[in-house]
Amino acid sequence: MLPHARAALAAVEEARGAVAALHGLLRGRVAVGMATSLPDTVLADPVGDFAAAHPQLEVSLREGTTDDLVEELRAGRLDVAVLGFPHAPPDGLDGRVLVESPLVAAVASDDPFTGRAAVTCEELASRTLICLPRGHGLRSALDSALAARSLSARVGFESGAMTLLLRLAARGAGVAVVPEPALGAAGVAALARPPVAVPITPEIRTRLHLVWRRGGPGGPAARALLDSLLR
Q1: What's this model's pTM, rounded to 2 decimal places?
Q2: Distance from C-alpha of 126 to C-alpha of 113, rounded to nearest angstrom
Q3: Domain for residue 133, yes or no?
Q4: What is the pLDDT of residues 51-88, one digit of tens each?
Q5: Are residues 53 and 114 in the same domain?
Q6: 193 with 223, same domain?
Protein backbone atom coordinates (compact mmCIF):
# COMPACT_ATOMS: atom_id res chain seq x y z
CA MET A 1 0.00 0.00 0.00
CA LEU A 2 2.97 2.34 0.54
CA PRO A 3 3.43 3.35 -3.15
CA HIS A 4 -0.31 4.13 -3.40
CA ALA A 5 -0.19 6.21 -0.23
CA ARG A 6 2.81 8.17 -1.52
CA ALA A 7 1.07 8.78 -4.84
CA ALA A 8 -2.05 10.02 -3.05
CA LEU A 9 -0.04 12.41 -0.86
CA ALA A 10 1.84 13.70 -3.92
CA ALA A 11 -1.46 14.30 -5.71
CA VAL A 12 -2.79 16.27 -2.73
CA GLU A 13 0.37 18.38 -2.59
CA GLU A 14 0.20 19.08 -6.33
CA ALA A 15 -3.47 20.08 -6.04
CA ARG A 16 -2.60 22.50 -3.25
CA GLY A 17 0.17 23.95 -5.38
CA ALA A 18 -2.18 24.35 -8.34
CA VAL A 19 -4.71 26.24 -6.21
CA ALA A 20 -1.98 28.48 -4.84
CA ALA A 21 -0.70 29.12 -8.37
CA LEU A 22 -4.17 30.37 -9.37
CA HIS A 23 -3.85 33.03 -6.67
CA GLY A 24 -0.43 34.10 -7.90
CA LEU A 25 1.48 32.21 -5.19
CA LEU A 26 3.92 29.35 -5.22
CA ARG A 27 3.76 26.83 -2.41
CA GLY A 28 5.17 23.37 -1.84
CA ARG A 29 8.65 21.88 -2.06
CA VAL A 30 11.38 21.90 -4.67
CA ALA A 31 14.46 19.67 -4.41
CA VAL A 32 17.57 20.61 -6.41
CA GLY A 33 20.69 18.49 -6.94
CA MET A 34 24.24 19.50 -7.82
CA ALA A 35 27.39 17.48 -8.39
CA THR A 36 29.86 18.00 -5.54
CA SER A 37 32.67 18.91 -7.95
CA LEU A 38 30.92 22.01 -9.28
CA PRO A 39 31.67 25.56 -8.06
CA ASP A 40 28.97 26.99 -5.80
CA THR A 41 28.39 29.87 -8.23
CA VAL A 42 26.63 27.48 -10.64
CA LEU A 43 23.41 27.35 -8.60
CA ALA A 44 23.82 29.69 -5.62
CA ASP A 45 22.57 32.86 -7.34
CA PRO A 46 19.65 31.53 -9.43
CA VAL A 47 18.31 29.18 -6.74
CA GLY A 48 18.86 31.75 -3.99
CA ASP A 49 17.03 34.43 -5.99
CA PHE A 50 14.15 32.05 -6.69
CA ALA A 51 13.81 31.09 -3.01
CA ALA A 52 13.90 34.75 -1.94
CA ALA A 53 11.19 35.63 -4.47
CA HIS A 54 8.93 32.82 -3.21
CA PRO A 55 9.18 32.69 0.59
CA GLN A 56 6.18 30.33 0.80
CA LEU A 57 8.18 27.72 -1.07
CA GLU A 58 10.48 25.19 0.62
CA VAL A 59 13.64 24.83 -1.48
CA SER A 60 16.30 22.23 -0.68
CA LEU A 61 19.71 21.64 -2.27
CA ARG A 62 21.52 18.31 -2.23
CA GLU A 63 25.06 17.50 -3.38
CA GLY A 64 26.35 14.13 -4.55
CA THR A 65 27.93 12.22 -7.40
CA THR A 66 26.36 12.31 -10.83
CA ASP A 67 25.34 8.65 -10.61
CA ASP A 68 23.65 9.10 -7.22
CA LEU A 69 21.77 12.22 -8.26
CA VAL A 70 20.55 10.58 -11.47
CA GLU A 71 18.89 7.90 -9.34
CA GLU A 72 17.39 10.58 -7.08
CA LEU A 73 15.89 12.28 -10.15
CA ARG A 74 14.47 9.04 -11.51
CA ALA A 75 12.96 8.20 -8.13
CA GLY A 76 11.29 11.61 -7.90
CA ARG A 77 13.28 12.73 -4.84
CA LEU A 78 14.84 15.55 -6.89
CA ASP A 79 13.08 17.88 -9.31
CA VAL A 80 16.06 19.31 -11.21
CA ALA A 81 19.84 18.95 -11.02
CA VAL A 82 23.02 20.32 -12.57
CA LEU A 83 25.26 17.40 -13.54
CA GLY A 84 28.14 16.57 -15.84
CA PHE A 85 27.84 14.01 -18.65
CA PRO A 86 30.23 13.39 -21.54
CA HIS A 87 27.26 12.99 -23.90
CA ALA A 88 23.45 13.18 -23.56
CA PRO A 89 21.67 12.66 -20.20
CA PRO A 90 20.85 9.02 -19.33
CA ASP A 91 17.56 7.32 -20.18
CA GLY A 92 14.53 8.77 -18.46
CA LEU A 93 15.97 12.29 -18.21
CA ASP A 94 15.77 15.39 -20.35
CA GLY A 95 18.18 18.29 -20.18
CA ARG A 96 19.92 21.27 -21.69
CA VAL A 97 23.66 21.80 -22.03
CA LEU A 98 24.79 24.77 -19.93
CA VAL A 99 28.55 24.62 -20.54
CA GLU A 100 30.80 22.47 -22.71
CA SER A 101 34.56 22.44 -22.22
CA PRO A 102 37.62 20.26 -22.90
CA LEU A 103 39.45 18.36 -20.20
CA VAL A 104 43.08 19.33 -19.67
CA ALA A 105 46.05 17.91 -17.80
CA ALA A 106 46.87 20.28 -14.93
CA VAL A 107 50.48 19.95 -13.77
CA ALA A 108 53.07 21.71 -11.64
CA SER A 109 55.05 24.49 -13.29
CA ASP A 110 58.19 22.28 -13.36
CA ASP A 111 56.44 19.09 -14.52
CA PRO A 112 57.77 17.29 -17.64
CA PHE A 113 54.43 17.97 -19.36
CA THR A 114 54.76 21.75 -18.87
CA GLY A 115 55.34 23.58 -22.12
CA ARG A 116 54.06 20.71 -24.26
CA ALA A 117 51.58 21.48 -27.04
CA ALA A 118 49.49 18.49 -25.89
CA VAL A 119 49.71 15.12 -24.12
CA THR A 120 48.20 11.85 -25.31
CA CYS A 121 45.97 9.40 -23.47
CA GLU A 122 48.87 6.95 -23.47
CA GLU A 123 51.03 9.51 -21.67
CA LEU A 124 48.28 10.21 -19.16
CA ALA A 125 47.92 6.51 -18.42
CA SER A 126 51.65 6.32 -17.63
CA ARG A 127 51.41 8.96 -14.88
CA THR A 128 49.82 9.14 -11.43
CA LEU A 129 46.49 10.87 -11.98
CA ILE A 130 44.51 13.14 -9.67
CA CYS A 131 40.80 12.77 -10.45
CA LEU A 132 37.23 12.98 -9.29
CA PRO A 133 35.93 9.67 -7.85
CA ARG A 134 33.98 7.21 -9.96
CA GLY A 135 30.35 8.19 -10.33
CA HIS A 136 31.13 11.71 -11.56
CA GLY A 137 30.50 12.58 -15.19
CA LEU A 138 33.99 14.00 -15.69
CA ARG A 139 35.57 10.78 -14.43
CA SER A 140 33.33 8.77 -16.76
CA ALA A 141 34.51 10.87 -19.71
CA LEU A 142 38.16 10.22 -18.81
CA ASP A 143 37.69 6.49 -18.17
CA SER A 144 35.78 6.06 -21.44
CA ALA A 145 38.47 7.84 -23.45
CA LEU A 146 41.19 5.65 -21.94
CA ALA A 147 39.16 2.43 -22.28
CA ALA A 148 38.64 3.16 -25.99
CA ARG A 149 42.43 2.78 -26.32
CA SER A 150 42.61 -0.26 -24.00
CA LEU A 151 44.11 1.92 -21.26
CA SER A 152 43.15 2.52 -17.64
CA ALA A 153 43.81 5.38 -15.23
CA ARG A 154 46.44 4.95 -12.53
CA VAL A 155 44.74 7.13 -9.92
CA GLY A 156 46.73 8.24 -6.89
CA PHE A 157 44.38 10.87 -5.45
CA GLU A 158 40.58 11.14 -5.62
CA SER A 159 38.41 13.97 -4.33
CA GLY A 160 35.10 15.61 -5.18
CA ALA A 161 36.64 19.04 -4.50
CA MET A 162 38.06 20.46 -7.71
CA THR A 163 40.24 23.00 -5.91
CA LEU A 164 41.90 20.24 -3.88
CA LEU A 165 42.73 18.32 -7.07
CA LEU A 166 44.40 21.39 -8.54
CA ARG A 167 46.31 22.21 -5.36
CA LEU A 168 47.73 18.68 -5.34
CA ALA A 169 48.73 19.04 -8.99
CA ALA A 170 50.43 22.37 -8.25
CA ARG A 171 52.49 20.59 -5.57
CA GLY A 172 53.69 17.99 -8.07
CA ALA A 173 51.66 15.10 -6.62
CA GLY A 174 50.53 14.01 -10.07
CA VAL A 175 48.51 15.08 -13.10
CA ALA A 176 45.02 16.44 -12.41
CA VAL A 177 42.48 15.89 -15.18
CA VAL A 178 39.97 18.74 -14.95
CA PRO A 179 37.79 20.98 -17.15
CA GLU A 180 39.85 23.84 -18.56
CA PRO A 181 37.77 26.62 -16.85
CA ALA A 182 38.55 25.12 -13.41
CA LEU A 183 42.07 26.59 -13.51
CA GLY A 184 40.60 30.08 -13.45
CA ALA A 185 38.95 29.58 -10.04
CA ALA A 186 40.00 32.23 -7.51
CA GLY A 187 41.43 29.72 -5.03
CA VAL A 188 43.64 28.23 -7.74
CA ALA A 189 44.76 31.33 -9.62
CA ALA A 190 45.87 32.92 -6.35
CA LEU A 191 48.41 30.18 -5.59
CA ALA A 192 52.05 31.25 -5.54
CA ARG A 193 52.78 28.65 -8.23
CA PRO A 194 49.45 27.74 -9.84
CA PRO A 195 49.18 24.60 -11.97
CA VAL A 196 49.64 24.79 -15.72
CA ALA A 197 47.06 23.51 -18.20
CA VAL A 198 48.21 21.21 -21.00
CA PRO A 199 45.70 20.13 -23.71
CA ILE A 200 44.89 16.45 -24.16
CA THR A 201 44.88 14.86 -27.60
CA PRO A 202 42.58 13.59 -28.93
CA GLU A 203 40.33 16.06 -27.15
CA ILE A 204 38.08 14.81 -24.33
CA ARG A 205 35.08 17.04 -23.73
CA THR A 206 32.66 17.20 -20.84
CA ARG A 207 29.25 18.86 -20.75
CA LEU A 208 27.44 20.44 -17.83
CA HIS A 209 23.70 19.78 -18.11
CA LEU A 210 20.61 21.08 -16.37
CA VAL A 211 18.49 17.91 -16.15
CA TRP A 212 15.03 16.84 -15.06
CA ARG A 213 12.76 13.81 -15.35
CA ARG A 214 11.44 13.16 -18.83
CA GLY A 215 8.12 14.94 -19.21
CA GLY A 216 9.13 17.69 -16.79
CA PRO A 217 8.87 18.16 -13.02
CA GLY A 218 5.49 17.30 -11.50
CA GLY A 219 4.45 20.29 -9.42
CA PRO A 220 3.90 23.94 -10.42
CA ALA A 221 6.65 25.15 -8.08
CA ALA A 222 9.24 22.81 -9.62
CA ARG A 223 8.12 23.79 -13.11
CA ALA A 224 8.47 27.48 -12.20
CA LEU A 225 12.02 26.89 -10.93
CA LEU A 226 12.93 25.00 -14.08
CA ASP A 227 11.56 27.83 -16.23
CA SER A 228 13.63 30.37 -14.28
CA LEU A 229 16.82 28.29 -14.66
CA LEU A 230 16.27 27.88 -18.40
CA ARG A 231 15.95 31.61 -19.08
Answers
A1: 0.80
A2: 12
A3: yes
A4: 898 888 888 999 999 999 999 999 989 999 999 888 88
A5: no
A6: no
